Amino acid sequence: GRTPTEGDSASIHANRALLTRFVERVMGGPAILVGNSMGGLISLMTAAETPASVSGLVLVNPALPAAPGGFFDLGVAAMFAGYCLPGIGELLMTGRKALLGSEGSVRQMLDFCCVDAGRVSPDVVAATIALSQERTKTAGGNAAFLSAARSIVLTVLQRGAFERMVERVTAPALLVHGTHDRLVPVAAARALA
Could you give the CA distance from residue 83 to residue 10 in angstroms, rounded to a whole number? Predict the structure, then answer.
């Protein structure tokens, strides 16, 4: 959440390219990639696009297309549809922060994403609130979030392209997915497996 875009895109494709450069320049060789949600999708994409740079994958509730015949939670679908609409997404982001503040936004998202938000360590909650407060002072933060969210939606809606990408992954993978995940139903993870 602290990587500046420096005028570049924050799309998952731009993040995949950034991750590939990091593995090549900093790691100097293949790496085991561990990714949650968007990070899981980016890790999967990296393993497909540059297989020599990935020796293994750990995917934790990765962003995925709906399972064939499956659907997303209506609240999740509505939220991401709003993010994807030009102008509306921007209003949702600024309005939510203005109405709830950083602490309220974090607590709302934890309630939305967690089966039991009360089980999240208070230290993790506090660190997430601090990061959210830091991000409100960063120019372009909302635009970066919306760019990433919109690119995830476009990617997961292209099921055929997604499946062709997955076919190119040769690295061994561990897929961990919660049965009560509202953002990505467990049926989508079973379809990926």
Answer: 14
